[in-house]
Structures are given as structure tokens and as C-alpha cells.
From TrEMBL, chain A:
Gene3D superfamilies: MetI-like. PANTHER family: INNER MEMBRANE ABC TRANSPORTER PERMEASE PROTEIN YDCU-RELATED, INNER MEMBRANE ABC TRANSPORTER PERMEASE PROTEIN YDCU-RELATED-RELATED. Belongs to the binding-protein-dependent transport system permease family. CysTW subfamily. This is ABC transporter, permease. Residues 64-270 form the ABC transmembrane type-1 domain. It is found in: Cell membrane. It comes from Rhizobium meliloti (strain 1021) (Ensifer meliloti).
From TrEMBL, chains C, E:
It comes from Rhizobium meliloti (strain 1021). InterPro entries: AAA+_ATPase (IPR003593), ABC_SmlMolc_Importer (IPR050093), ABC_transporter-like_ATP-bd (IPR003439), ABC_transporter-like_CS (IPR017871), Mo/tungstate-bd_C_term_dom (IPR008995), NA-bd_OB-fold (IPR012340), P-loop_NTPase (IPR027417), Transp-assoc_OB_typ2 (IPR013611). Its main location: membrane. This is ABC transporter, ATP-binding protein. Gene3D superfamilies: 2.40.50.100, Nucleic acid-binding proteins, P-loop containing nucleotide triphosphate hydrolases. GO terms for molecular function: ABC-type transporter activity; ATP binding; ATP hydrolysis activity.
UniProtKB/TrEMBL annotation, chain D:
This is ABC transporter, permease. It comes from Rhizobium meliloti (strain 1021). Residues 64-252 form the ABC transmembrane type-1 domain. One of its GO terms (cellular component) is plasma membrane. SUPFAM superfamilies: MetI-like. Belongs to the binding-protein-dependent transport system permease family. GO terms for biological process: transmembrane transport. InterPro entries: MetI-like (IPR000515), MetI-like_sf (IPR035906). Gene3D superfamilies: MetI-like.
Length: 286, 318, 361, 264, 361
């Protein structure tokens, strides 16, 4: 068994060892160093950076738990937005499909930096979004989106959705249409056939998308940096600030170690759940 | 032989000015300049790794680098132009200021009818959701905090009153945001969303040159917060002589004037002559304006800002 | 609900330029067992799939229980269906596959458990409840597909070659079980098969299709004994064709002059006009071979060129002196005739059928 | 079965609203790009100045070129590394699979800022501080997990007998991979490549640290630019990219369509 | 290259607790045609897949051309293979599917074109070159799978139910074509089928499998006439079993006392010990039914309970007075015996086989 698997896994694992594991050793080591006088790094062996974060409820609630919540929320909304789109695209072909794909990918292609232009115009106090909502009588006072967590979530959804569409599409397309027909035949309407057949069979793609987007959201720093304000203490942004604005590499490293562990735990949880529910049944072994 | 000098710069217009003036240097010294473009922190990191020769820095970085022993002393013998520096433009034997801008109080003339005279204006209730300031870990905001501490019975060593004031500002709902991206502040003034706020002079110029006529600026009585570009030579510079020559070149009146007129970064040398007809002359921190810069002890700020931020976060959110 | 019939009226399906099903009409009466039989690619699956609602007809009308269902979604048609390629849901176990339809009908758990067990027992799959489809052999998968349809006890059942991957013994058993179930439950059944034996033994009537069209609809005996066309004769069972012209026709007795000049006598029910070009059909099992000279009506001579052994039967290919190849089957034999032997071929006039020669009409 | 019933109408509706959501800011960006005064809506005029500026900037053009080459190379490398791993993950069950799965995800778990910083320091230490290798490696390693995930998902629905059939007629593993496996999982592969390319194309933190002086990718150039110079040049650049990719899509569709016509 | 044989030596495959193939041994000589026959799920496909190298055996040895190939990758084994589920490459047209192997062999274009055309003609698929697999009917797909293997003119060919989805007429034709091709090219062939007729008519020898094990390996005639076990007798053709005890044995003549007390006489080749429990096998086609009283050896009486019509044959089920059900097949009949009629059943002693009763041994 290992004879067949090892050659397959070794290129990726080797690359990870060389270019992730070794560099991360440095990060790990740095997390025990000290920042002296807020300016320069002193070699040390202290747990200070960890205790500073982990014993401070404010950090735990407003940074860690906050990031997890926002990441989960944005990921969930992305999934809800992406699924119908993927379903629809899977049914199209030719030019229509290409156009839809292009539209889906466009936000990614342009990149966040420039898109923020458009979003400012939409989000600002008297911007399009507020004008529209007020015109539609959803609310009557302008609501703050820009430099606010609402805007951050909307943007995370905006960026996450195309990733999920992409990773779902292939799984949905490969579902044998006979399987849906068979379900319809035993009395499932479209909706039931979708829930019982298409959805479970699309879970590999969904899971892939979920993991990717969750991780992206959890570690996000560019979106909170540009759309959020000082209150938006997403952990990715905090790390970025500590490392690059405050020069506090030791603390940033410690935060990274914490973040990687939390993220790994969450993903392990997700994969255990997904595996239990469905993935293990789809694994192609003969 | 192949001579290359690695110089850090910020991208965009700063780099553009640098490149424009550097051509002459390259020809004269027969040495190519490799621009190491990046955000301020990159400059420090690259310096730590010995990837650069001349470092264009923020003052904060220069101080950190000094503590870590990254720089070599600037030798006035090799950098004759150092003689022309204003006295307060020499931070230490390692660090001098290359140029200086400041953060002024910008306001919308249509909505702010009386010219504001003090930074305290930002707290006024009528400006709900109309004020912009820089993010709380940026120098101007930190300086404002210290300023407020001093005005409210504290000092840089007892910054609590300042933090309370800042928390008050945050909770007042006046702030549209405390932003990390400067260019967004410009657009807020442009669209009329922001009525009042801090703005770097360089951004102010941008606004004006875009034809925005209803935004003006004032230097409040407490003084303005400086935006300092410092310069250092790396201790392991490959070619120290060439590095010194380049620093000397930066301090030449020619380059100083170029940065002043193109980027609104005021000269730090006395002999730089700004043309009288220069359109944005008021925006430059010239001669005596230097003295009015509010420049609290940068080292203390650096040492304490992490703690301050955390305190402020807690005060503002609870 | 009393009228569980299917009417197919002039249904057509085109794929681009190619017509897969061409104006096909037939019907299946309440409780009737009708088979669709025809060569590979003749349009059987397509017809069935149109009835089930998986394929939109290009034209024509479909009625189930007297109601026009041509444009009804599949889940509203309430038809059982067994897929040719099984279409088992890969993420469900055998039991889940079978239970799915029952769950949709909101049956209670015990009821479902019992029905699933029953369907799996019928198809010989007890003990495989918790396997996933990919852990089953081809035949086992096919039986799950069958069990899945049967568990719902459909009043109208469509099956697409549901036994094609089973061994003969199992097929015979399953065939019986199916037939018995169908008779007991009075299921209206349309059964696609490529196996004529299956079609003949199970069906009340058989629809023979060829190249997208219906060739004949008839009861099995009728089909075998009185094929309407050469195609049917050839497809249903094995047939020998000998071309000739009718030279005398008196009452039930007809004389046909073969190409070789030899005369054959036949007994026919329909009157045949003198001089018509006909093809005489002789079923191989009606042929008697003798290794010694024989006398009487309808004796032809030839040479055995191939002898094939099938256990219960021996099949000889005989090259007649006219050059035609004639097949003969012998059951209950005690000796072989060696390849190369000269033989006398006897066919009694009652076992000779005549059909018009549509080849050069 | 394209019948007009409620669920398919609903699906269509949702899809088109999502499309509207996705392109709304882009449309605004487009308007911004032709508006003489940015951020002021409704537009107060029409100008192509921003486009002109964008396309006459050597920095941007070079940045674009760098990003393009880098994105393609990194996407290819990442997928080449990911594919065998994905095959192992999708096809076999082995002890420790969960762990391997997680290990392969690590570049995704580590904050990009930290990862790229660590990588930068690492490369300097091993003596490859400058040059293209660190940049390429950084991009490739960062996007690899995406490729692993998407390819694994693709391969889970793959009927292994396709491969067996190919092996049987004499195709070796490699040939089977290229002639059968990859074409069959085409959509997944294209998704993966596209995603990887886009991730690399948009990446900022890794490039900031790892790009050698003359190889600055577009996002870094753009960020540096707008950080200090807030005008619609960036918007014009973005708009050009959208238009370019739209044209490319149509052209590819025409070509692919043509091929299909020629074949049948 | 001169020895294109296959040796299977004690091969075993376990899936977890379940043993799919259990210590199976047999061999296929150069140019020989051997069939693997057995009920659904008995391990045929698994055995074949192990030989082809798609499944790793849990134990045992495989030799092809005298060489140990147990751990050789599939592409090195140089065996033709036809998949039970077709495994056509969905992204390639019919022609591309067939041409793929040839392209790998770096043949020139004209050669490939000709070979593809030839293989498609053999399988009756000319004109379908540019279709994609999903645009074909089930039977057409199966034929493409066959064409794909044949185009390579393999010296050793493994086929997994390659004709299961074809109609009888086409199957008979294809069977002939295949057999002829095999004979002409002297292909060493291992053929999995669930169709005993196919196995008997095509093979030099047949391997009968049951529950993962080999029951008998023998030539068709031998298998049918002298089944080694009850399973084989039952599986290959239809058999009536009547249990009894040997009461007298003299020379070739043996007398068996049935449970009902009636005596049957049989002629056997092997000596049988007195008092052995045996089962008497009677093939249905060896049974003669008379509606009038008959006299002589081996006459049993009973009542017809079911008459099935299969075109060329009529099958009766007779309930003997002892209660046993006996099947009789009549070919070449001219009249039916009505269900319910009383009948006299005659079996000549030469057509009675005896096997030890392993059920209660
Ligand atoms: N992956 C698997 N896991 C567990 N059991 C399996 C697996 N694959 C096959 N089996 C079992 O092994 C046995 C033999 O399967 P195989 O496919 O060889 O049967 P077969 O003789 O080809 O039957 P058929 O005629 O129905 O195709 C079956 O009982 C099947 O359920
Ligand atoms: N999607 C399609 N596009 C084009 N032609 C098709 C398509 N589906 C089926 N056909 C063609 O329609 C004809 C009828 O197909 P169908 O599947 O109904 O045959 P069938 O009678 O079920 O045959 P079999 O016994 O081989 O399964 C075939 O010639 C087939 O090639
Ligand atoms: Mg079919
Ligand atoms: Mg099988």
C-alpha cells in the first residue's frame, strides 16, 4: 500500500517540508522571543506572547471568537449564494456558460485592491446601497457599511462566493443524470431529488469550497484592513498589524501559531463531520 | 565593474520622484540604483536581512533599527550636505530626516463654516459621522492621543487622560472611521462624506489639484503632527562610499526641492529654495513651521503604543 | 385508479438528424404484461424513457391511466422503473437505495423495514443490506435496481432489461418471481428486453421494434408461428428462409417453386395468389435430418457443414444442394451427425410458413 | 427538460441576482474609470484619460506581464504537485490519511503575512534571498492546497474503470493520466488551474516580501500606487482586465465551437 | 511469444471479512477458449480483474505466457480486456475510443484508420464513428467496448460478459464472429459469461464457479453430460433431481429406489456402491411425456401443472405422484398438453445420471 501511495504524496509533502515546515520553525522559535521597548527583538524563551493573548478575555472574545464567527457567517452566506449559481451553470453550455463563468470569476480577476473603488461608491453614507435601500423602504436612515463589520462580511461573501461556485461546479456536473431520474421516478420532486441525490453527491466539491473559503475568511486581513476600521479585530488583521505596523514579530508569531492550531482544529472537525456524513461513502475504492 | 545600490522606497509617487532624480546620480556615479519597493515595515525587515544599502524609512523604523544596531553612523565628512540640515532634522548620529510633511486639519468649507482652530473640534457633537482620522496605531493618531493627554492633565508618561478622550471620540459616533488606507480619506472629503479630519499634506494637495474647491485646511494652534521620512545607511552596505554619496545626494537642494514640489514633502535643509510661485507653497512645512511641529518622544511612543492600543480598544469597546 | 393502462400514440424522438423512435404506437392494458423486443439500438430504451418522463418526446402523445402525461414531470407519473444501467445511488447502501421511495411516501419505519427486507429477499439479496453499490457485482447491482422498483409495489411498472446481467438459473428464477408478482399484484408491465425467450415466456403481448419503428404487436405464439415480416420471423427465434414463387394454390395447400427449381408444399391459412414471390420460413426445430435417403413431401438434400453442441440441443448447418444454408436443431439426440455427412432434410408441409417477399417488392 | 416550472425559474432568478451582485461593483468601477471625477455619481462627464494613463504606465504593463507569467507558472507547479497527492487521497484509504489531509492544507492555515515573511527569511538564510525562485515557490506553495482540495473532489466522482481500461490497452500511468484522467476531470482541472492562477494573480502579501526588485507583480504595484495616489487609473486598469477577459472568453468559445463543428 | 497461456494458481481475493474469490486455480492453454461460468456474485469479474491486474490478489499466483505477472502493472501484461460496464472513455468518440490503444502503439495513421474501421464493422457499428459514448444505446456501448479490445488484435483476450446487453440475433452473430476471429487469430481467450449457452457453444473448456470457488473444469459436453456436482448439473442446463438409494448394481446397470418407493434403472460408467445415497439427474429434454398409459423401464406418473411456451419449445412442469416436480421440454411439437392432464413420464436408462447426494453427506 505505502509502496503505491508514497511516490504520489512525496512531491507535495517534500515541497511542504522545505517551504512551509522549515520556515515555520523560525516562526515557532520567534514566538518565544521578546520585543524590547516596543522596537526591537530580543532572543528569549518566554511564553509571554502566548499568555498575553490566551489569558486576556478581551482578545479571546473580540479577536479569536469574533474571527471564527465572522468567518463562519461569511462562509455560510457564500455557500447559500454559490450553490444555486453552480447548479444553474452546470446546466448551461457554450457561450452562455462561458459568460456566466466569466461573470463569476470577474471579481477574483480584478482583485480586491481595485474593487474597493466600486465598493466605496456603493457603500458610503450617501452611496448607492443606502439610496437603494431607503428608496425600497427597507430602512429610512443611512446605514454604515464602509468601515464597518457589515461591509467586511459583504465583501468576504463577495470574494468567497466565486471560489465555492468553482469548486462545486465540477462535482455537480459529474453527477450521472440517471441518478436524478431514478429519484424522480420513485416520487421525488425536483426539490427532494436535489436534497437527497444531487446535494450529497456534490459534497466533495462543497467541502473543498468550504475549507478553502473558511480558511481565507478566517485569515482575512486585506478586507478588514480596507473595509473595516479599528474595531474590526479579525485575527488576520491583528497579526498583520502586529507584524508590520508594530514590528512585534514575536507576538505576531505567537498569534499565528494559535491561529493555525485553531484553524486546523476547525478543519479537522469539518472533515471528520464530512467524512462521517458522506465522503467516506464516495471514496472510489474497488 | 557592476555597481548597484539597493535603496528602499515606497511605491507610487514617492518612487516616481526618486526615479526621476536618481537618473542624474546614476550617470554621475556610474552606479545603478535598484529600488526595493514596499510598505514601511518591509523596509525594516529587508534591512534586518541585509538586503538593502540605503534605507528610506519612517522615523519609527529608524528608531527600531537603531536599537537593533542595523545602521552605520552617518559621516558628515562623506555627506557634506548634512551641514545644511535644520538642527531638529538630525535625530541621532545614525538617522537624519530626508524630508518632512505634516498632518493638517482638513475641513469642508461648505459645512464647517467657522475655521476650526483646534484639534478639539473633532469631538464636537455636530460632526456625528463626519470625522475621519488615521487608524489608532498610526503616528498622527498616537500623537493626537499624547496631545490630548497633555491637554487633560496627563503626559506622555501618564497617557490615560488621552486614551479616555480618544475612547470618547470613538464612542461619540463622530468617526466615519479610523482608516488604514489614506487614499480612502481623500475620497471621503471629495465626496463630501467627511467634513473634518486629519489629512497628510500630500493628500491635501491631491484633493486640491483634482479641482476640489470646498475643502480647505488649517494648522491648529496645538501644532501639527509630522510625517517624517528618515534615511539610514545599512551597517553591512555593500558599498558604503556609494551609499554615503547617495544620502548626500538626497540632502542636496535639488532633490529636496523635487520632493517638495512634486510630493509636498518639505525640505530638511536650509538651502533648498522653493519657488515663490509654487502653487501649494502653503502646504509645505517651511522654515519656522518646523518649530511648530508637535513631536512627542518617539521612542516612548514606540515602546508603549502596543499597550496603549490595547487599553484604548478595551475602553472604546466596553 | 381502476384503469392502470398505458397508451403510446405516435410517439417520436429525434436526436438531431437521427430519429431514434419513429411514430411508435401501442398500448398496455390494465394488468397486462407487454414486452418491447428488438435489436440493439432500435429505440426500446428511448421509448421507455419517454413514457417514464425522462426524455421529452419530439412528437406524439402518451397516456397513463387514461390521462395525458406527455408533459408531466416524472415524479408525478407514478410509474415503477428499472434502469438498464442500474442507476443506483452511490452514496446510499443497498437498503437505503431500496427504502428511498418508501421514505418519500412517508411510510412508517417498520413498514419500510419489512418492505425492504421483502424486496431484497425476492431478488436474492438478503445479507447485502449494508453494502454500497460499488461493493457489488454487476448482477447484484442489477437486482438492487429491481428491488428498488418492486419495493414500491407500483401499479404500472417499466423495466429496461432488468435481468440482462444475471446468470441463466437466476434469470429463470427471477423471471418466475417477477411474473408471479406481476400476476398477483395485477401490475401493468412494460418490459424491455433483448432476450426473445424472456419476451415470449413472460408476456401477454410482445411489441417488436426495429430501427425505431414497430414491426408487429402480437401474442407470443402468434408472433412465433405467424410472423408478419421477415424481420420478425428472423428476430423471434431462428428461421430458415427459402425464396420462391407460388405455382399452385388450392384450398389450404400451396406449392412453391424454389430458386433451385425444387418444389415445396405448404399448408396455409390465408389464401395466396398464384405467381406471388414468397419466402418460405422453416423453423430449425421443425427440420428433420436423416443420414439415409428419405422419401415423401418436402425433401431436400445437402451436406452438414457445421455441428454445434449446446448441451440440450445440437444445431447443424446444412448446405443444401441449391447452395442455401439451412439450420436444423435436434433435441433429445443420441448420436452426432459428423460434419461433412450427406443428409436428407425433411419438413412437413404444416410447418412451412409463407410470407410475401418484401425484399424486392 | 427545460420546462418552465417554479423551481427552475427560482434558480434562474437567484443566479441572475447573484450575477448582478457580483458585477455590480465592477460596473461601478467601470463607470468610475470613465468618469473625470472619481467617486462622484452620477458621472459628470466621460473621459478615457484614466485608461490612457493606465496603459501608458510602464510599471503597470510590466507588473501585468510579471503577474501573468508568475500566475501561470505557479498554477502549473502547484497543480503538478497537487495532482498525485489528490490521486492518493481520492483513491486509497491508508492509515493517517486525515493527518496527511491536514498537512496538505497547512499553507492555507498559516496567515499569508506570516508565511511569506517566514519564507522570505528562510530563503535569505539558505542564500536564495533574491531572484525569482522564492517568489515562484512562495506563490506555488501557497496555492497548492486549493489545487489539492479541488482535484481531490474531482477525483472522488471519477470511475476508476476508465483508467483501468487505458492501462489495459497499454497506456502507462503517465499516459493514462494525460489521455484519460485529466480529460475526464477536465472541469475540475480547469477550475483548479483557474483558481490557482487567480489566487496568484491577486496575491499581495507574498509578492511584497518575495518579489525581487525588477519583478514586481501587478497587485504590489497597484497597491503602492493607490496608497499614495488615489485616482481612477487603477479602476481603468481593472476595467481593461475585465474587458480583455470577456473578449478572451468569447474568442475561446468561438474557437472551441469551431473545433466542435469541424469534428462532426 | 509462442506460449500465450494463462495459469491461475490458487488465487484468492478478500474484501474485509468477505472472500470474493477463494483459492481458484485453472489454466487456459495457448489458443484455447475457456469460459468462466457461474451465478451472479460468484467472483467471475473479480477473478478476471485480478488476471488483468486491476485488483491486487490477496494470495496466489498468476502466470501469463509462463511469466509470473502477479504484481505486474496492467499495462505491462499485454492482455485484451472487455469490461462488464463498458468503461468507455466519455471524452472520446467511438472511433477515438477504438483507436487509442493503436495510437499508443505508434501505428501509422492509415493503419489505425483501417483497423478501427475493421473493428467497428465486425461489431456492426460502422457509421457511429463520431458519436460520443453517451449518445449510444446500451448494446451499442457494449459493442464499442468489444471493438476497442479487438482492434488491438490481442494474443490473450479477457472478456467480461461482452454480449450481455445484445439481443439474441446480434448475440448469435457476434458470438460466431468472435469465435471465428478467435480461431483464426489463435487468441488465448478467457470469457466470463452468465449465459450457459454461450459458454457451452463457444468454449473448449468451461470453468464453473460458485461462491468464489471452482466447482468443475471440463469440456462442454462433459460438463453437460457428466456434471461433477449437483450445482453444476443444475447450473448448466436445467435438471430434474430425484433422490434415492442404490439398491442393486451389476455391471453398467444400477437400480435406484426413490423416496417414493418407485424404482429407476440407470446405466452408469463409474461403479457405484450399493446403498449409496444418490441423486438421479434427468435432463428435461430427455423426458418423454405421454398422455396415454405407457409401459417399460422408468415410467413415472404425474400431472401437468404448468405449460410454458417458448416458441421453439414447450416446457411442462409435472407434479409426480411422489410430489416431486419434474420438468420436461418438448421440441418439435404439434399439440399442447393441457395443464391438469395426467401424464406418463418416460426416461430411458441411458439418460439417467447418478451423482452422490452431497446434501446430507
Ligand atoms: N469492493 C468490494 N467490496 C466488498 N465486496 C465486493 C467488492 N467488489 C465485489 N465484491 C463482492 O465480491 C463478490 C464477487 O463479485 P464479482 O463482481 O466478481 O461477481 P461476478 O461473478 O462478476 O458477478 P456478476 O455476474 O453479478 O457480475 C460479490 O459477492 C460482490 O458483492
Ligand atoms: N443522446 C443521444 N444522441 C444521439 N443519439 C442517441 C442518443 N441516445 C440514444 N441515441 C440513439 O438512439 C437509438 C436508440 O437508442 P436506445 O437507447 O433507445 O436503444 P435500445 O433499443 O435501448 O438499444 P439497446 O438494446 O442496445 O440498449 C440508438 O441508435 C442510439 O445510438
Ligand atoms: Mg437500451
Ligand atoms: Mg461480474
Amino acid at each position: 500500500m505505502t509502496r503505491r501511495i508514497l511516490p504520489l504524496l512525496s512531491p507535495a509533502l517534500l515541497a511542504l517540508l522545505l517551504f512551509v515546515a522549515f520556515p515555520m520553525v523560525w516562526v515557532f522559535r520567534t514566538s518565544f522571543n521578546e520585543l524590547a521597548e516596543g522596537a526591537y527583538i530580543v532572543e528569549a524563551m518566554t511564553l509571554e506572547n502566548y499568555t498575553r493573548f490566551l489569558t486576556e478575555p478581551w482578545y479571546l472574545v473580540n479577536t479569536l471568537w469574533f474571527s471564527v464567527r465572522i468567518a463562519l457567517l461569511a462562509t455560510a452566506i457564500s455557500v447559500i449564494c454559490a450553490y444555486p449559481v453552480a447548479l444553474y451553470i452546470a446546466k448551461t453550455s457554450g457561450l452562455q456558460r462561458n459568460v456566466l463563468m466569466a461573470l463569476t470569476m470577474a471579481p477574483l480577476l480584478i482583485g480586491l485592491v481595485t474593487l474597493v473603488y466600486g465598493w466605496i461608491v456603493i457603500f458610503r453614507g450617501g452611496g448607492l446601497m443606502n439610496s437603494l435601500m431607503i428608496a425600497l423602504r427597507v430602512y429610512d436612515q443611512p446605514v454604515r457599511y464602509m468601515w464597518d463589520i457589515k461591509g467586511v462580511v459583504i465583501l468576504l461573501v463577495y470574494i468567497g462566493t466565486p471560489y465555492i461556485v468553482l469548486s462545486l461546479l465540477d462535482s455537480i456536473e459529474r453527477i450521472n443524470p440517471f441518478l436524478v431520474e431514478a429519484a424522480r421516478n420513485v416520487g421525488a420532486n425536483r426539490w427532494t431529488a436535489f436534497w437527497k441525490i444531487v446535494f450529497p453527491l456534490s459534497t466533495p466539491g462543497l467541502y473543498a469550497g468550504l475549507v478553502i473559503v473558511f480558511s481565507l475568511n478566517f485569515a482575512a486581513f486585506a478586507v478588514p484592513l480596507m473595509i473595516g476600521d479599528s474595531n474590526t479585530q479579525m485575527i488576520g488583521l491583528v497579526i498583520y498589524r502586529e507584524a508590520l505596523l508594530n514590528n512585534d514579530l514575536p507576538f505576531a508569531s505567537a498569534l499565528s501559531v494559535i491561529m493555525v492550531s485553531v484553524n486546523a482544529l476547525l478543519i479537522l472537525g469539518m472533515s471528520a463531520l464530512a467524512g462521517r456524513l458522506i465522503l467516506s461513502r464516495l471514496e472510489a475504492k474497488r | 565593474e557592476d555597481c548597484a545600490l539597493r535603496v528602499t522606497t515606497w511605491g507610487g509617487s514617492y518612487q516616481a520622484t526618486y526615479q526621476a532624480v536618481a537618473q542624474k546620480f546614476e550617470e554621475e556615479h556610474n552606479c545603478r540604483i535598484e529600488w526595493v519597493v514596499g510598505a514601511s515595515p518591509d523596509h525594516l525587515i529587508k534591512a534586518r536581512l541585509g538586503q538593502v544599502d540605503v534605507v528610506t524609512n519612517t522615523l519609527l523604523n529608524s528608531i527600531a533599527g537603531e536599537k537593533e544596531g542595523l545602521w552605520q553612523k552617518l559621516d558628515p565628512a562623506k555627506i557634506p550636505n548634512m551641514a545644511n540640515l535644520y538642527p531638529n532634522a538630525v535625530h541621532s548620529p545614525y538617522t537624519v530626516f530626508a524630508n518632512v510633511g505634516d498632518y493638517v486639519l482638513a475641513y469642508n468649507k461648505d459645512t464647517v463654516t467657522t475655521v476650526p482652530a483646534t484639534w478639539d473640534e473633532l469631538w464636537k457633537p455636530e460632526y456625528k459621522n463626519r470625522v475621519v482620522i488615521y487608524g489608532i496605531d498610526h503616528i498622527p493618531t498616537l500623537s493626537l492621543t499624547v496631545l490630548q493627554a497633555e491637554k487633560n492633565g496627563g503626559s506622555i508618561d501618564n497617557v490615560e487622560p488621552g486614551l479616555d478622550r480618544m475612547a470618547e471620540l470613538i464612542k461619540s459616533g463622530n468617526l466615519i472611521g479610523s482608516l488604514d488606507v489614506e487614499s480612502q480619506m481623500v475620497s471621503l472629503f471629495e465626496t463630501g462624506d467627511a467634513w473634518l479630519g486629519m489629512l497628510a499634506t500630500g493628500r491635501m494637495k491631491e484633493l486640491l489639484s483634482k479641482g476640489v474647491t470646498n475643502v480647505s485646511f488649517v494648522r491648529p494652534e496645538e501644532g501639527t503632527f509630522p510625517l517624517i521620512t528618515s534615511v539610514n545607511i545599512h551597517k553591512d552596505a555593500k558599498n558604503p562610499a556609494m551609499a554615503a554619496a547617495f544620502v548626500n545626494y538626497i540632502l542636496s537642494s535639488e532633490v529636496q526641492v523635487a520632493f517638495a514640489t512634486r510630493n509636498l514633502y518639505a525640505p530638511t535643509v536650509k538651502n533648498a529654495e522653493i519657488p515663490d510661485d509654487f502653487e501649494f507653497r502653503d502646504l509645505l512645512v517651511l522654515n519656522d513651521a518646523f518649530g511648530r511641529l508637535y513631536l512627542p518622544d518617539q521612542e516612548k511612543i514606540t515602546a508603549n503604543k502596543a499597550g496603549w492600543q490595547q487599553q484604548l480598544n478595551q475602553k472604546a469597546m466596553r | 385508479m381502476s384503469n392502470d393502462s398505458i397508451q403510446v400514440e405516435g410517439i417520436t424522438k429525434r436526436y438531431g438528424a437521427m430519429t431514434a423512435v419513429d411514430n411508435v404506437s401501442f398500448d398496455v392494458g390494465q394488468g397486462e404484461f407487454v414486452s418491447l423486443l428488438g435489436p440493439s439500438g432500435c429505440g426500446k430504451t428511448t421509448t421507455l424513457r419517454m413514457i417514464a418522463g425522462f426524455v421529452d418526446p419530439s412528437g406524439g402523445l402518451l397516456r397513463v391511466r387514461g390521462r395525458d402525461v406527455t408533459h408531466l414531470p416524472p415524479e408525478k407519473r407514478d410509474l415503477g422503473f428499472v434502469f438498464q444501467n442500474y442507476a443506483l445511488w452511490p452514496h446510499m447502501t443497498v437498503a437505503e437505495n431500496v427504502a428511498f421511495g418508501l421514505k418519500l411516501r412517508k411510510k412508517n419505519r417498520n413498514f419500510i423495514r419489512d418492505k425492504v427486507a421483502e424486496a431484497l429477499t425476492t431478488t436474492g439479496l438478503s445479507g447485502y443490506e449494508n453494502r454500497l453499490p460499488r461493493q457489488l457485482s454487476g448482477g447484484q447491482q442489477q437486482r438492487v435496481a429491481l428491488a428498488r422498483a418492486l419495493a414500491l409495489e407500483p401499479q404500472v411498472l417499466l423495466m429496461d432489461e432488468p435481468l440482462s446481467n444475471l446468470d441463466r438459473a437466476l434469470r429463470v428464477t427471477m423471471r418466475r418471481e417477477l411474473k408471479e408478482l406481476q400476476a398477483r399484484m395485477k401490475m401493468t408491465t412494460l418490459y424491455v428486453t433483448h432476450d426473445q425467450e424472456e419476451a415470449l415466456s413472460m408476456s401477454n403481448r410482445v411489441v417488436i421494434m426495429n430501427k425505431g419503428q414497430v414491426e408487429q404487436v402480437a401474442a407470443p405464439f402468434e408472433l412465433y408461428e405467424n410472423p408478419a415480416t421477415g424481420f420478425v420471423a428472423d428476430f423471434v427465434g431462428i428461421t430458415n428462409f427459402l425464396g420462391g414463387i407460388v405455382t399452385s394454390a388450392e384450398g389450404g395447400g400451396v406449392e412453391v417453386k424454389l430458386g433451385s427449381g425444387q418444389m415445396l408444399r405448404a399448408v396455409t391459412k390465408q389464401p395466396v395468389a398464384l405467381g406471388t414471390k414468397v419466402r418460405a420460413l422453416i423453423r430449425p426445430e421443425r427440420v428433420t435430418l436423416k443420414t439415409t435417403a428419405a422419401d415423401g413431401d418436402n425433401i431436400l438434400t445437402g451436406q452438414v457443414v457445421l455441428a454445434e453442441y449446446f448441451g440440450a440441443l445440437l444445431r447443424y448447418s446444412v448446405r443444401l444442394d441449391s447452395g442455401d444454408i439451412l439450420r436444423a436443431e435436434v433435441h433429445n439426440f443420441d448420436s452426432f451427425i459428423e460434419s461433412g455427412s450427406r443428409v436428407w432434410v425433411c419438413v412437413s408441409p404444416e410447418h412451412l410458413r409463407l410470407i410475401p417477399d418484401e425484399r424486392n417488392a | 427538460m427545460t420546462r418552465w416550472d417554479i423551481s427552475s425559474i427560482a434558480l434562474r432568478l437567484v443566479t441572475f441576482s447573484m450575477m448582478a451582485f457580483l458585477i455590480f461593483p465592477i460596473a461601478v468601477t467601470l463607470i468610475v474609470a470613465v468618469n473625470p471625477r472619481e467617486f462622484v455619481l452620477p458621472p459628470n462627464g466621460f473621459t478615457l484619460d484614466w485608461f490612457r494613463a493606465a496603459w501608458s504606465s510602464k510599471t503597470f504593463l510590466r507588473g501585468m506581464g510579471v503577474s501573468l507569467v508568475l500566475g501561470l507558472a505557479a498554477a502549473l507547479i502547484a497543480n503538478a504537485l497537487a495532482l498525485p497527492a489528490a490521486i492518493a487521497l481520492a483513491r486509497t484509504n491508508f492509515p493517517g490519511k486525515g493527518a496527511i489531509n491536514l498537512i496538505l492544507m497547512t499553507p492555507l492555515l498559516i496567515p499569508t503575512t506570516i508565511l511569506s515573511l517566514a519564507l522570505y527569511i528562510y530563503f535569505v538564510r539558505v542564500g536564495y534571498g533574491s531572484g525569482l525562485v522564492p517568489l515562484l515557490v512562495g506563490h506555488a506553495i501557497h496555492i497548492m492546497p486549493y489545487a489539492v482540495r479541488i482535484l481531490t473532489a474531482s477525483l472522488l466522482n471519477f470511475d476508476p474503470s476508465y483508467e483501468e481500461a487505458a492501462r489495459n490497452v497499454g497506456a502507462g500511468r503517465i499516459r493514462t493520466l494525460f489521455s484519460v484522467t485529466l480529460p475526464v476531470i477536465r472541469t475540475g482541472l480547469i477550475s483548479s488551474l483557474t483558481l490557482c492562477f487567480i489566487l496568484s494573480w491577486n496575491d499581495f502579501p507574498i509578492s511584497v516580501f518575495l518579489a525581487p526588485p525588477s519583478w514586481t507583480p501587478l497587485p504590489v504595484e497597484l497597491y503602492s500606487y493607490i496608497k499614495f495616489q488615489y485616482d481612477a487609473v487603477a479602476a481603468a486598469l481593472a476595467s481593461s482586465l475585465i474587458l480583455l477577459s470577456a473578449v478572451a472568453m468569447v474568442v475561446i468559445d468561438r474557437l472551441a465551437g469551431l473545433r466542435r463543428v469541424l469534428r462532426s
